[in-house]
């Protein structure tokens, strides 16, 4: 059971928009920065979003992040088949004194 | 461009110690802006943070693994290492070495390609 809760899967058609939620508590998301990672099949995770809503250089603006209270959301617009991957949220948990991740969400682009 | 590369045995016997090293190239492990550490992922499962180390040697560990894990750093070789003792089949996973920013970005911005370790 992951500390952060994500939907196991989401799907949408090419060109459409999808959002992936990440729910936590005041000890993690509520008081710490959230990051998001994309893991393509057979590869290492890649940073997509850091500090809740900032994109590293090279990440297209189709990817966006937001946070409200104890939940965070990853948004992806203009879906492409190459976006099919597992997406993970992560943050620091002040009570556990540990980095925690969500259980991951598998995105299918139909 | 920064690169991280894991190395170590791909097969470890139950009850023995798993040892991995991460070699950092294209940047200094002695930077004051980053933690260096390990994340693992059992086959078909989720990411799990193992722990991190600062270049001074200060460490933080996942409470669930703290009794079995040790991370060390060798700044002269630009490397850091993981030791996980008393392994069982449940420790079988892909192990990634990572860099995590301090103060910004507070995220794992660089990852190694990962190395599969099987306990059997």
Structural summary, described in words:
The complex is a heterodimer of chains A (110) and B (120). Chain A contains no helices and nine strands. Chain A has 110 residues and is mainly beta. In chain A, the strands form two sheets. In chain A, strands 1, 3, 4, 7, 8 and 9 form a six-stranded mixed beta sheet that branches. Chain A has a three-stranded antiparallel beta sheet with strand order 2-6-5, with no helix packed on it. Chain A is globular. The model of chain A has no long low-confidence stretch (mean pLDDT 97). Chain B is mostly beta strands and 120 residues long. In chain B, 0% of the residues lie in helices and 52% in strands. In chain B, strands 2, 4, 5, 6, 9, 10 and 11 form a seven-stranded mixed beta sheet that branches. In chain B, strands 1-3-8-7 form a four-stranded antiparallel beta sheet, with no helix packed on it. The chains are: A mainly beta (110), B mainly beta (120). The A-B interface holds A 2, 32-33, 35, 37, 43-47, 50-51, 54, 56, 88, 90, 92, 96-104 and B 39, 46-49, 52, 60, 62-63, 96, 100-101, 104-109, 111-114.
Tags for this model:
heterodimer, A: 110 residues, mainly beta, six-stranded mixed β-sheet, three-stranded antiparallel β-sheet, 0% helix, 45% strand, B: 120 residues, seven-stranded mixed β-sheet, four-stranded antiparallel β-sheet, 11 strands, 52% strand, globular
Major sheet of chain B, described briefly?
7 strands, mixed
pLDDT averaged residue by residue of chain B? 96
Report the total helices of chain B: 0
Number of strands of chain A: 9
Write down the secondary-structure element order of chain B. EEEEEEEEEEE
Largest sheet of chain A: 6 strands, mixed
Q: Estimate what percentage of residues of chain B fall within beta strands.
A: over 45%
Shape of chain B: globular
CA(first)-CA(last) distance of chain B: 36 Å
Helix/strand-derived class of chain A?
mainly beta
Regarding quaternary structure, what we see is: heterodimer
Question: Helix proportion of residues of chain A, in percent?
Answer: under 10%
Mean pLDDT of chain A: 97
User: What is the 3D shape of chain A?
Assistant: globular
What low-confidence regions of chain A span 5 or more consecutive residues with pLDDT below 50? none
* Percentage beta strand of chain A: over 45%
Q: In angstroms, what is the radius of gyration of chain A?
A: 13 Å
